[in-house]
Design a protein that fits this description.
Elements lengths: L4 H12 L22 H17 L3 H4 L29 H14 L3 H12 L7 H13 L3 H13 L6 H13 L3 H14 L6 H13 L3 H14 L5 H13 L3 H14 L10 H10 L3 H12 L9 H13 L3 H14 L10 H13 L3 H9 L10 H13 L3 H9 L10 H13 L3 H13 L6 H13 L3 H11 L7 H13 L3 H13 L7 H11 L6 H39 L6 H17 L5 H24 L1
Helix pairs in contact: 4-5, 4-6, 5-6, 6-7, 6-8, 8-9, 8-10, 10-11, 10-12, 11-12, 12-13, 12-14, 13-14, 14-15, 14-16, 16-17, 16-18, 18-19, 18-20, 20-21, 20-22, 21-22, 22-23, 22-24, 23-24, 24-25, 24-26, 26-27, 26-28, 27-29, 30-31
Length: 631
């Protein structure tokens, strides 16, 4: 190819200048040819490269992930399922979670639980984290029956629980005063669950056992925790020390404190145990040592780390042992240091302790003021807090103030429970307001709460004492099917009605008693009923009612037996109609003919025997057919 003159001159300059000449590649670097002289050389290179690849695979193939082992086709259905990870809470399931949280914030727990149930079998199945949110909200409002019902539902639906779910169930049973049931569930968790308990699990169990008066079992559980290798938890020791204080065992308090001190290396820097230690000193009469412990914990330059729980324990010790002035100073300091989210020194328990302290001092107006200041520190009262204040007010004859506080519960998103209404009902009876007491009990029933038999007995007793026997009978009719009445309840209402001359109503109560399968009509009870009916000359009515009930029971039993026999005959006839006649053979045909002839020849008086013959032949016919089918 010809070059122009300028281009040729530029090329010559480049050749004469060594700095502009391109450097030759070093000899140790191999230069790969991008082409071959002949097609045969290219084919030979391809063949050699294929041979090298067969002998030595490329390095990239060594980094490929190995195929995962296949899961067995039929896993064990009884094996416990692993709970879903947090990453499962995404997409539509996260949207569902947020919708249910919105319902919980609106305090619409029934709709939240119903929405959760309906979503279980939908295309968007809720995660265990969504279910736990609903369960926790129900636990906060003490809706234990709804909580257990929802937990039973998700268990049957196959939703794998996690440790939070188990903790909520433990707390529920412990709050319901069923520590043995809670420990049974704990053993089931240890034996069957694919995960281990958390430190929070042991805190819930030990606190619940102590609150239920099971300090010995709590101590045994502490030993089990030590064997499992958990680090010493000052909060657990705090709960155990509180139990020793309740049992007036000051030596047990000091023994637990020394044990914790030894395990932590000789120094306890967590202030949660300070209050219990102070109570131990106060119980021993060592007030000076108790105040020294107090100064060491909350004094200037103290190394003890105090949180809201530790401060509350110290407040309680000061209020209980006549140092209320010092408690007020500490409470003011706690409120000044409270700066969430950096530091929390005040919580709901702090205000409850101070309300108790003010009420013990007889300063009820200041107690109500402190109670209403919770919102300023982002503390929302619950049903227990309201009940605590209402109980103090009712016990000191301040019913109007208690009703005013109860009226504020709805504005705080808290619903009154059975204990709230029972407090107001009892106080209304004490204040000679039986109509209002009956209205509070009716509110309890209308709001689908479940008052127990003791509350009903107090209501009936209060109404009868003021001469309202008719109202007492109406509540008996209302609660007769909702409560398991005992013999004393029946005797009380029958005696009240007989004293009022309403013997027809007494007979109605007796009729209800005879239908109650839980009540045994023994001779003592019969004598009592006859004695009450004898006042009107109707003691013979009891025998007639008993005979009538026995006759109705016999007729019902005979009818039940007859229906069972009819169902059995219809099933046999259906089976016979499904089997073809060709399966019975010649002998079976002859047997059927003989049975038919015997039935036609039998007289009218022997109809029953003919029916028995037909039953026997038909049963033998079915057995022969079954044998032929089996062959």
């Amino acid at each position: 190819m010809a070059l122009s003159k300028p281009t040729f001159l530029t090329h010559l300059k480049t050749l004469t200048n060594p700095r502009l000449c391109p450097l030759t590649p070093p000899s140790f670097l191999s230069v790969r040819s991008l082409s071959f002289a002949t097609p045969e050389e290219a084919a030979a290179e391809r063949r050699s490269r294929k041979r090298r690849l067969r002998i030595e695979p490329p390095i990239s193939s060594l980094h490929r992930s190995q195929p995962k082992p296949q899961q067995p086709q039929n896993p064990n259905p009884n094996a416990p399922k692993l709970p879903e990870p947090v990453s499962a809470l995404s997409g539509n399931r996260l949207n569902l979670h947020n919708k249910i949280l919105t319902l919980i914030r609106r305090n619409d727990l029934e709709e939240a639980a119903l929405y959760t149930r309906h979503s279980i079998y939908s295309n968007c199945r809720p995660t265990i984290y969504t279910v736990n949110s609903v369960l926790a909200a129900q636990l906060r409002q003490s809706k234990y029956s709804d909580l257990l019902s929802l937990h039973r539902f998700i268990t049957q639906a196959g939703v794998a629980p996690n440790i939070v779910t188990h903790n909520l169930i433990f707390q529920t049973y412990l709050d319901c005063r069923k520590p043995d049931t809670a420990m049974e569930h704990y053993k089931q968790l240890i034996n069957d669950a694919p995960f281990n308990p958390s430190p929070t699990t042991y805190r819930i169990l030990i606190k619940g056992l102590v609150d239920n008066g099971k300090l010995d079992k709590a101590m045994e559980l502490k030993e089990e925790i030590d064997l499992k290798g958990f680090e010493p938890d000052p909060t657990l020791y705090h709960y155990l020390m509180v139990g020793c204080v309740r049992d007036s065992d000051s030596d047990g308090v000091f023994r637990l404190y020394e044990e914790l001190k030894e395990k932590l290396g000789g120094e306890v820097e967590d202030g949660v145990v300070v209050g219990s230690l102070m109570k131990g000193y106060f119980m021993k009469g060592m007030e000076q040592e108790a105040m020294e412990c107090y100064e060491k914990a909350v004094g200037v330059g103290s190394k003890v780390k105090m949180n809201a729980v530790g401060y509350n324990s110290v407040l309680e010790a000061l209020c209980k042992y006549h140092n209320f002035y010092e408690a007020l100073k500490l409470f003011d300091r706690m409120r000044d240091e409270h700066s969430p989210p950096r530091r929390f020194t005040v919580n709901l328990g702090s205000f409850n302790v101070m309300v108790d302290g003010y009420c013990v001092q007889g300063r009820f107006k200041e107690a109500v003021e402190v109670f209403r200041k919770m919102g300023e520190y982002k503390c929302e009262p619950d049903a227990l807090s309201f009940n605590n204040l209402i109980q103090h007010l009712c016990s000191n004859g301040m019913l109007s103030e208690a009703e005013e506080v109860c009226g504020e519960m709805g504005g705080k998103g808290v619903n009154p429970d059975e204990y709230t209404y029972s407090l107001l009902m009892d106080t209304c009876f004490d204040e000679n307001r039986p109509a209002d007491a009956a209205e509070y009990f009716r509110k309890m029933v209308d709001e689908k709460l479940r008052p127990n038999l003791a509350v009903y007995n107090r209501l009936a007793d209060g109404l009868v004492k003021v001469g309202k026997v008719v109202e007492a009978k109406s509540f008996f009719d209302l609660m007769g099917k909702k409560l398991k009445m005992d013999v004393a309840s029946y005797q009380f209402i029958m005696k009240a009605l007989s004293d009022a001359g309403q013997f027809d109503e007494v007979l109605n109560v007796v009729d209800t008693l005879l239908e109650d399968e839980m009540i045994e009509l023994n001779e003592e009870l019969q004598d009592f009923i006859k004695g009450e009916l004898r006042k009107d000359g109707k003691e013979d009515e009891l025998e007639k009612m008993i005979e009538e009930k026995e006759r109705l029971k016999a007729e019902a039993k005979a009818k039940e037996i007859e229906e069972a026999e009819a169902a059995k005959r219809s099933r046999s006839a259906a089976v016979s109609s499904l089997l073809p006649s060709s399966l019975f053979g010649k002998k079976e045909t002859e047997k059927v003919g003989e049975a038919t002839a015997s039935v036609e020849a039998a007289p009218a008086a022997d109809t029953n025997s003919a029916e028995e013959v037909m039953k026997g032949e038909s049963s033998s016919k079915s057995e022969g057919a079954n044998e032929q089918l089996a062959a």
